[in-house]
Amino acid sequence: MKTTTLRSALPIARVLFVILFLIISCVTGFAQQPPQSGKYYVIDYAANTDGLATPVTYTLWVPDGVKKIRAIIVHQHGAGMEAATEGQTAAYDLHWQALAKKWDCALLGPSYHVTNNAIDLTPGGAEVWFDPRHGSEKTFLQCLDEFATKTGHPEVATVPWALWGHSGGGIWSDVLATMHPDRIVAIWLRSGSALMFAPKPEFLQPVVPEAVYSIPYMSNPGIKEKGKLPYDGTLNTFKTYRAHGAPIGFAPDPLTAHETGDSRYLAIPWLDACLAMRLPDVNSTSQKLKPVDNSKVWLAKPESTVAVPAAQYKGKVNEAVWLPNAKVAKQWMEYVKTGSTSDITPPPAPFDVTATAGPKGRVITWNAEADFESGIRQFIIKRDGKEIGRVAEIPFGRFGRPLFQSMTFHDTPVKPLAKMTYNDGVVTNPAEKHSYTVISINSVGLQSKPSKPSN
């Protein structure tokens, strides 16, 4: 695991702001303690008069061993100071990394350093960045050019994007699509879209080119937001885009308001299906996305809980929820009823288990990949075949299922980031010989096979 940091030459006052921000982050426990696998790259930009008026930090995760990056998955936080702070950890999320690794993608987590909670064009407020026409689009493209050089993957500058956006991040994603429709694999709008801000006089609705209606979308508000802009805006986006023939779905979360809840358990498989459908072939020299394949589509009535194969659908197709295939349709039916999805497959076993003598006992470390369907809830530690403890023994977190990386309001890991380490305080004699294994438990309680014994 490596972390590389770049710094752009920018006005001194703004540079000092960024430095102060990073110092605060370290004090609060985010002193770069990422999970073990992959490489991390960080670029900071201060605000400038030529474009972006808000400082931003971009963190890019690149899977180990990837030869050619096929796309960038962007996990974009929403408006407000809390969202910006908690957005810092997006690229460190093990579950989103599992999606990225599956498709040889990089995972990008931007964090815009707003100075207040305004959601208009107030200096230091969020609309300054979540409307990409005010400079964040330009800075986003600039960061990709710089990452292309620093990572040794020149394709980073030109590959397609899969966008996930919450609230203001949904607005940013939706507007960005109107500016670069040919580069976007798919977009997940969690409680935010451009039409959400239709009543705002300072927010000019973007002109939507026809190419946007070729992009798969999913609108995903919380049902407890009904009657408010995040729900009504994303519903109107669904209705408007679907009327133009766009492959767009609507998945209201029955358990939540504006918090993201367990939406990742539908968002990740939905994006997985879209990446499978649209990414250029691995050996292709072209970055042109494949067109949407409607041969396996399922349809449903908006705000219903039942989907059927398209050939069996009796309603108006251009008003129906679009779902890419049977697997996602079944997950959608479960999600809109329960707010989550089930899983019957165990997680992969941990690996690279080591045991070393420490000042207070034997220190056990390991690595693990998240279960693709359900993430990681906790780990069981065994000495000589007998359980001696658990990491995240009582999983905590206010939002969504209990996870090893406890989740925030904004679908990002809580700081400080959880570490894959356990101290066996019983074994204090360095000469003692013991064998340690680790088992992963996913968020629905299924256990992996034991890891290979410790080195």
What is the compact description of this entry?
The chain has 455 residues and is of the alpha/beta class. It has 9 helices and 18 strands. Strand 8 (217-219), helix 7 and strand 9 (248-250) form a beta-alpha-beta unit.
Structure description:
By secondary structure, the chain is an alpha/beta fold. It is 23% helix and 22% strand. It has 9 helices and 18 strands. It has helices at 12-27, 81-86, 94-102, 127-130, 136-150, 168-179, 229-243, 264-278, 326-338, and strands spanning 2-7, 39-45, 56-62, 71-76, 105-112, 161-166, 184-190, 217-219, 248-250, 298-300, 307-309, 321-323, 351-358, 361-367, 378-383, 386-391, 421-424, 436-441. Strand 8, helix 7 and strand 9 (248-250) form a beta-alpha-beta unit. Helix 8 (264-278) runs antiparallel to helix 9 (326-338). The two termini are 19 Å apart.
List the helices and strands and how they pair.
Layout: E1 2-7, H1 12-27, E2 39-45, E3 56-62, E4 71-76, H2 81-86, H3 94-102, E5 105-112, H4 127-130, H5 136-150, E6 161-166, H6 168-179, E7 184-190, E8 217-219, H7 229-243, E9 248-250, H8 264-278, E10 298-300, E11 307-309, E12 321-323, H9 326-338, E13 351-358, E14 361-367, E15 378-383, E16 386-391, E17 421-424, E18 436-441
Parallel strand pairs: 1-2, 4-5, 4-6, 6-7, 7-8, 8-9
Antiparallel strand pairs: 2-3, 3-5, 10-11, 10-12, 13-14, 14-17, 15-16, 15-18
Helix pairs in contact: 8-9
